[in-house]
Amino acid sequence: MNHIILSIALFLRGSKEYKITKEFVRDILNNTSNPYKKYVDITIIFLIITSVFILIYEVKNPVPEWLDTYDIYFVSFVFSIEYCLRLWVHNDITERIVKEHKDSHFLQREFSPYSVFKEGLVEKVQYMFTPSALIDLLAIFPAYRPLRVLRIFVLFRVLKLLRYTKSINQFTEVLASKKFELLTLLFLLFFVVVTAGIALYVMEEHQNPNIESLFDAIYWALVTISTVGYGDISPVTTEGRTISIIVIVSGIAMISFATSVIVSAFSEKLSELKENRIIEQVNKSKSFLLICGYGQMAKMFLRHYGEEYKNYIILENSRERMEQARKDGYEAIYEDASRYETLSKFNVIHCEITILCLTASDVENIYITLNAKSIATNIRVIARVNDSSMESKFKHAGADHILMPNRVANTMIHTAISQPTMYKAIHAILTGKNIARIDEIRVYECDGLAGKSIDELAFKKAKLLFMGIQRKGEFLFNPLASTKIESGDVLLVMGRTISLEYFKSLYERNC
Amino acid sequence: MHRQKILLFGYGNHGKFIAQGLKEDGVAVQIIEEDKGRYEQALLDGFKSVSHIDVTKDDNLKALHPEKYTQLVCMMDDEHLNVFLTLSLRSLFKACYILSISDSIHTTKKLQMAGADKVIDMYEVSANKIHNILNRPIATKLLEEFVTHKNGIGFRELLIPNNSFLHGLMTDDIDLSKYGVLLVGMIDEELSHHFVFITAGVNHKLDTGDTIVCIGEEEKLDMFETLIEKKEVE
To answer: Nearest CA to CA, how far is B196 from chain A (Å)?
Structure first.
């Protein structure tokens, strides 16, 4: 028996498909940054909503059979699969068994998988008793036909929504942060209600026909203290009314206290919630910019090009400047980009991230560069360097592009002075004005450009000036007309935007 | 190219770099500096013509005779002073060409109001560059090398001389690539003094006196420059 269990465990562990599948399921169920998770979420939410709708509809109207079948079998079936999958990916029993086998082999003791198996199972059972797992389980129950009472369990499906809706989770999180205050309040409420209930019961049990038991009295106390006051039970004696006065006054106090606790909890957490929202939003996009530091340069960049870049976040570690950025209408959060936690919040695996280090301090910029590169090397970093002696350090830290405001400005000034007639031309080219921008065309394996020679290409027709090819880090200026274009080449051309688009459309090929 | 004379105000962060670049190009630079330390630094760096004067006094400025220079370049580190200087120069010398540097959006506007002919906004230029890097990284890098003549390839303006074989040709018909240079654009003296890009889609006739702008390797450009003086080429 031991042998069979072990060989199953070893087989599963060795199987790549098993591992990949399990990892995939785990990711799609639990990892919010997985791009496919939203489809799963939408499906489940749709099932829940239709199921609840059927429950309501059913009260007054007969339900067609197919809808009933859908509700009872299909929805429950999907939910039970989901439940099983969640249980499956919660932990790895095979992993434990294999480890136990290795350990016992190492210690030369007899191998028995049962203890670790039990441990794994206990963990799974513990998971089954967590509130969310219980809700999942109860949501499957309505499938059991003979007990119509179980139909009410459909409402547990609504509770399942908790898992899929962020805002409710955040609401409970916010409340949880004020656990102490709320518990104190609850205890106080309990104390007042019970005391007042008992007092009224003792005072009026004989005089008041509406109070028949202690429960009635406590019910009255709660209705009164909450300022609901149905009026079905009301005190008839002076003593009872005195108690009412006390209960009402303390009720007002308690409600205002509860409100203030909740409101303050929200206002404390509001900015954090907002920032998390912004981060989540941007994590959903394919590529985005992180602008570190909101100084002159970031301001200028956003003012000119802010509209072209939809997905960006400004990270600013000074609250004042962060507020300024928000006031100027940009998405900004108060975070220190040089901290590991900050950058790791972003979806580095699924998104293309470009970081612009634009703070005025070189030390800060270098630190952000290193931080970004240590999290993932595929993050592109464009760093601002103020002191030209720092350039090599930035290259060493792994910055992909280096921007020296002084040098850039100086090049422009220099051109303006030494080549005044050219200045306009160079300026137009450098700034990418529509009449003349120098642009690059990347050649991919599958498009129509690769394999052709230069004289075959319709540069002239598109009114483009072909300047050269960047090939494997080298620039070939004005190559021979018979030169063949290879995939991976970058063609450097000059011309208007429409020319460029027209040219690209000529050689576009779907692949 | 005729020899230019530049009057450069300020030998600070930017001025220093510019002065050195201009000196390498063989442009005559006269440096004016207010601060004693920077004035001495300029002398130490090997500049012969450096003056240490108070630029807020009109008489001092007049004594410099700015009208003799091709361009007045204001690059004081203190932006208030820079605006003031631009304003004084403009009010004193109406005809001079003034170039100023600005390091914020607000200063740019003030400098323009003060009468600078050209204002270069440091941050605007950098912002453009970020945008370019994001959209076309390779082109940006190459272009910068062209402008700074780093890899031997650069832009050059050429005046079409008398009896050049280029005279009378249409821009659409000529192909300079066999000479190793590419025609980027031209200034057609007949029509206007504006620079026209070759890719703008208008066919121009080249005449004697027009300026053409070419890109190419330095040696090829030199060769081409002598070539265009010939009447005919095979």
So the answer is: 8
| CATH 3.40.50.720 domain span(s) along chain A | 285-403
Fold of B150-227: Alpha-Beta Plaits (3.30.70)
Alpha-carbon distance of A368 to A336, in angstroms, equals 9
Residue of A291, A299, A301 for testing the chain B interface, max B β-carbons within 10 Å? A301
Among candidates A303, A403, A496 on the partner chain, residue whose Cβ is nearest the Cβ of B126: A403
Residue A215's identity, in one-letter code, is F
ipTM: 0.74
How many residues belong to chain B? 234
CB contact under 8 A, B200 and A435: yes
Query: For tokens 């809700």, what's the residue?
Result: A135
pLDDT digits (tens, 9 = 90+) for A192-218: 999 999 999 999 888 888 888 999 999
Q: Is B83 exposed, middle or buried (0-12, 13-18, 19+ CB in 10 A)?
A: buried
* Cβ pairs bridging A and B (under 8 Å): 190
Please tell us whether the domain made up of A434-507 is placed in CATH 1.25.40.20: no
Q: Cα(A382)–Cα(A378) distance, rounded to whole angstroms?
A: 13
Nearest to B19 by CA among B53, B52, B43, B1: B43
- Which chain A residues are closer than 8 Å to B21 by Cβ? 410, 414, 418
One-letter amino acid identity for A377? T
Ordered DSSP codes for B44-100? HTT-S-EEE--TT-HHHHHHT-GGGSSEEEE--SSHHHHHHHHHHHHHH-TT--EEE
The domain defined by A179-269 folds into Helix Hairpins (1.10.287)
Q: Where are the alpha helices (DSSP H) in A165-205?
A: 166-177, 179-204
* pLDDT score recorded for residue B1: 43
Q: What is the pLDDT of residues A254-263, one digit of tens each?
A: 889 889 988 8
For residue A507, which of A439, A476, A461 has the smallest C-alpha distance? A461
CB A406 within 8 Å of CB B14: yes
A476 CB within 8 Å of a chain B CB = no
Each residue's pLDDT tens digit, A85-118: 988 888 888 888 888 888 888 888 887 778 888 8
Residue extent(s) of CATH 1.10.287.70 domains in chain A: 179-269
CB B40 within 8 A of CB B63: no
Superfamily of domain A285-403 in the CATH hierarchy: NAD(P)-binding Rossmann-like Domain (3.40.50.720)
| d(C-alpha A44, C-alpha A24), whole Å | 18
Q: What is the CATH number of domain B5-125?
A: 3.40.50.720
Please list every residue in chain B whose beta carbon sits closer than 8 Å to the beta carbon of residue A387: none
Spatial separation of the C-alpha atoms in residues A391 and A403, rounded to whole Å: 9
B206 Cβ contact list (under 8 Å, min separation 6): B160, B166, B167, B168, B169, B170, B171, B174, B186, B212
- What stretch(es) of chain B map to CATH 3.40.50.720? 5-125
In the predicted model, is pLDDT for residue B234 greater than 60? no
Q: Which residues of B touch A463 (CB under 8 A)?
A: 199, 201
Domain with CATH 3.30.70.1450 in chain A: 434-507
Whether residue B103 and residue A414 make contact (CB cut-off 8 A), yes or no, is no
- How far A277 CA sits from the closest chain B CA (Å)? 26
Beta carbons of B132 and A432 less than 8 Å apart = yes
- What are the residue ranges of CATH 3.30.70.1450 in chain B? 150-227
Q: Enter the DSSP assignment of A30.
A: H
Convert the pLDDT of each residue in B66-106 to its tens digit.
Answer: 888 888 888 888 888 889 999 999 998 888 888 888 877 78
User: Cβ(A356)–Cβ(A294) under 8 Å?
Assistant: no
Question: Do B71 and A494 lie within an 8 Å CB cutoff?
Answer: no
